[in-house]
Amino acid sequence: MSKINKKIIIATGGTGGHVLPAVGLANYLNKIGFQTSITTDLRGTKYIDMSTIKEFKIIGGSRLNKKNFLFSLIKIFLAFLKSLLYLMKVKPKFIFGMGGYASFPVCMAAIFLRVPFIIYENNLLVGRANRILLPFAKKIFISYEEVAGIKTQYTEKKVVIGNIIREQILNNENIINDEPLTCLNILVLGGSQAAKVFAEILPKIFIKCCKQDIELKIFQQCLPEQISELKKIYKTNNLKNELFSFTFDIIKYYKIANLAITRAGSSALAELLNCRLPMIMVPLKLSAENHQFKNAQYFENKGYGIMLEESNVEKKLFDLLKNLNNNKKMIISVKENQEKYSDKKVFSNIKDLITNLFYEN
User: Based on the structure, what is the number of domains in the chain?
Assistant: First the structure.
């Protein structure tokens, strides 16, 4: 048994939507006896909790930038060379590619060294990197059956596993807020781009709500440099609030909120869905291939939340919040739809699949 290769590299990077699921997966696999290490770019290190993840390697990478095409190509090639050296040193049994540009050079090195790999896609549209890698991947694990972008000849590689999210969320029923809806406790979420935009647009709408006697408490993620100014605005207008920047303890806010305003990144939506937290989704217009719009559209069609395009936030959000406050059955209806869905089996699904793929006798 001791001679069995239990080394797994999880290739990720970029945004929290790619890195946080990778961290959750690494923690689970380590717990059941595997030896995992994470590769990421420098940007992705922000989302790695060093208290739980001990083995990680900064590889780098780049998107293919049309304006600086040659420079980005050089960065990808250098990341590929670095990946080659790292794989030759670690000698993993297989690689788990989490999607995105930062996982791409590691998986390309795996192709060159003939190391098998799986790719994971949690968006409703397969990303560019995963589309390129799919012909060489052993399998593509997907969160939803309805995912688009997989060519017919590769459908046999598709395996629906659910969303990879933090075990604390999957295993902790106490996260779900079942308190009576007497006040709208709004959790505002988003990465750096969303935090900036939301901090500029949303306070005016929240203040308008207060003036209309709509009781609110705001829990808002914002950039560190925005906190001081936002505090002044909310204090001046007697609006209850708690402001925070990026935190590994986001679950505490999931517990006390009863409505979220969020971008439509797949990981954020999956966590809110499993926490039974109704959401107003504002897709990022500049997301690659407009994938956030597709995510939000899917969730809205399923009744898991309400989509509001960014161009309509200033025009329509106040009326939407007013309607939700006056008719709280709308929020209850969304929660009831969310209760029909669960990702609780995602890690056991992964365990069974990788055992069959790589450790069968």
Answer: 2
> DSSP string of 237-281?
TT-EEEEE-S-S-THHHHHH-SEEEE---HHHHHHHHHTT--EEE
Q: Are residues 129 and 231 in the same domain?
A: no
Query: What span, in angstroms and rounded, lies between the C-alpha atoms of 38 and 54?
Result: 9
**Quick one: which of 282, 280, 328, 322 has its CA closest to 304?**
280
Structure tokens at 261: 């305003």
Question: Rounded to whole angstroms, how far apart are CA atoms 137 and 94?
Answer: 11
pLDDT of residue 192: 65
What DSSP letter does each residue of 314-349 carry, written as one string? HHHHHHHHHHHHH-THHHHHHHHHHTT---TTHHHH
Q: Indicate the pTM of the whole model.
A: 0.92
Adjacent-strand bridge partners of 248: none
- Shared-domain flag, residues 43 and 141: yes
For the segment 199-216, the average pLDDT, to the nearest whole number, is 93
Same domain, 236 and 313: yes
DSSP state of 139: E
pLDDT tens sequence across 17-73: 899 999 999 999 999 999 999 999 998 898 898 888 888 899 988 877 777 778 888
Which of these, 88, 93, 91, 107, lies nearest to 39 by C-alpha position? 107
Of 96-105, 146-155, 180-189, where does mean pLDDT reach its minimum? 180-189
| The one-letter amino acid at 62 | S
For residue 156, being part of any structural domain is answered with yes
Q: pLDDT of 320-353, one tens digit each?
A: 999 999 998 999 999 999 999 999 999 999 999 9
pLDDT given at position 197: 83
Domain containing residue 128:
7-164+343-358
* Statement to judge: residues 179 and 248 lie in one domain: yes
Fill in the amino acid letter for 121.
Answer: E
- For residues 122 and 184, membership in a common domain is answered with no
